[in-house]
Amino acid sequence: MAATLRELRGRIKSVQATKKITRAMELIAASRIIKAQQRAQAAAPYARELTRAVSAVATYSRVDHPLTTEPENSQRAAVLILTSDRGLAGAYSSGVIKEGERLREKLTSEGKDVDTYVAGRKGIAYFAFRQRRVVDSWSGFSDTPTYDAARDIADTLIAAFTAEEGDTAVDEVHVVYTRFRTMLVQEPTTVRLLPLEVVESAERPDTADVLPLYEFEPSDTEVLDALLPRYVQSRIFFSLLQASASELAARQRAMKSATDNAEELIKSYTRVANQARQAGITQEISEIVGGVNALADANAGSE
Amino acid sequence: MPDNLQVELVAADRVVWSGEASLVLARTTDGEVGVLRDHAPVLSVLVESGVEVVTIDNERVYAVVDGGFMSVANNRVSILAEHAELSHEIDLTKARNDLEQAQQAGDDSPDAEAKVRLAEARIRAAEKAS
Asked: Is it true that domain A2-23+258-292 has CATH number 3.80.10?
């Protein structure tokens, strides 16, 4: 048993090392969630004011904008899936990819072609491994998304949506991301981004009065032209922030259970190792006793 | 005091400045506008430029926006831009370099012109602050 005892000690050591790593990752993820939430909070005023402005224009002008017009029969849809750049986050990426596949099946059953757009290395790897076509992909910002990244994505999607014809022209755009509800609950969510449904301000304006009668400078059409793309960008930015908070929360949970499992493993290995050590000692004792007895017997015989 | 303008200067990822003010100057696509209290509700598109806010203590706050919007209603002024900086956050030497680069790369595309305008506005704001 002595060989296995050494083996067991080696195993315990390696599990302890792993535990240290997962514990560190858990703590890092936990501290980053707070930052991610702060970022989401910091971005909230912009989104709020923008939503207010968009609903003001939508309420007081009857302009039809290409981004809000429902296409008559929609044949092609774009799906943007927001995944993570790194793994070790439990089922985070596979959850959101699964949701994306569900959406894809639904759209296909409605007779639409689906173009896939992916953000995050995990999603890119998933589609590359299955040799499925991805129209465009982005990566490198999943845990700290910047507004520029959101703008990049939004511009590509808006271009695809407004294009009349071409390889990438689509009639609707959906986004699949993971919504951060609480530290414990994050759910993959699907939203239709384009055409925009004109939001009759989801949250009531804080002052009870109705929206003031704005003048538009230079004109309502131009204001809308400038506003709506930003609105789309801000929606994507919001999704990215939510996704990053969810990713960190998922990673923290995954690493916590990994740490717990490592502890369990260390405990059971220690027990087996102790048993083996005890067995070794017992064997040694019985060998010594046996040897002494044998000697005593031999001596007794000779005298 | 409800008599003053409630100003919020908001970038996409943070609130850059907020407080009470007596005057807000900004440059829209139609030209420069000054907003005093009881201004009519207006929603306008801004160009890359400096924004000047005179606070109730008569201090001046300079900021730079890269376009965006200004909405004025009920004595509330919100200025929204993707990126906005206060003048003291701008590194003057770096801003000068940026301008040089923008001018050198400058072709006549609207994009390049916007870059030059933004760089100029940043330098102006940084100089005013110092």
From this structure: no
Residue of B nearest to A60 (CA): B43
Which pLDDT score is estimated for A1?
46
The answer to whether the Cβ–Cβ distance between B40 and A215 falls below 8 Å is yes
Beta strands in chain A (DSSP E): 76-82, 113-119, 136-138, 172-180, 186-194, 215-217
Give the list of residues 6+ apart from residue A293 with CB closer than 8 angstroms, or none: none
Cα–Cα distances in Å, from A91 out to A73, A119, A154, A186, A239?
A: 36, 17, 27, 11, 18
Q: Which two tokens stand for residue A213?
A: 């009668």
- Predicted-complex ipTM score: 0.80
Q: Do B82 and A223 touch (CB under 8 A)?
A: no
Pick from B14, B41, B68: CB nearest A213: B41
Nearest chain A residue to B10 by CA distance is A46
Chain B residues within an 8 Å CB radius of A223: 43-45, 69
What's the CATH number of domain B5-86, 2.60.15.10, 3.40.710.10, 2.40.30.10, 2.60.40.420? 2.60.15.10
CA distance A177 to chain B (A): 19
Residue A100 CA to residue B96 CA, distance in Å, equals 46
Q: B45, A223: Cβ pair inside 8 Å? A: yes
Spatial separation of the C-alpha atoms in residues A220 and A247, rounded to whole Å: 40
Q: CATH for A27-255?
A: 3.40.1380.10
Q: Does B14 sit within 8 Å of A223, measured CB to CB? A: no
Q: Which residue of A has its CA nearest to B27?
A: A217
Q: Where are the domains of chain A?
A: 2-23+258-292, 27-255
CB-side exposure of B30: number of CA atoms within 13 Å?
A: 14
Q: In a structure prediction context, what are the per-residue pLDDT tens digits for chain A, which is 303 residues long?
A: 455 888 899 999 999 999 999 999 999 999 999 999 888 888 888 888 888 888 777 777 666 777 877 777 788 889 999 999 988 888 899 999 999 999 999 999 998 889 999 999 999 999 999 999 899 999 988 888 888 899 999 999 998 888 877 777 888 899 999 998 888 888 999 988 888 776 554 455 455 456 677 888 778 788 888 888 888 999 899 999 999 999 999 999 999 999 999 999 999 999 999 999 999 899 999 999 999 999 998 888 766
Chain B residues lying within 8 Å of A207, measured CB to CB: 74
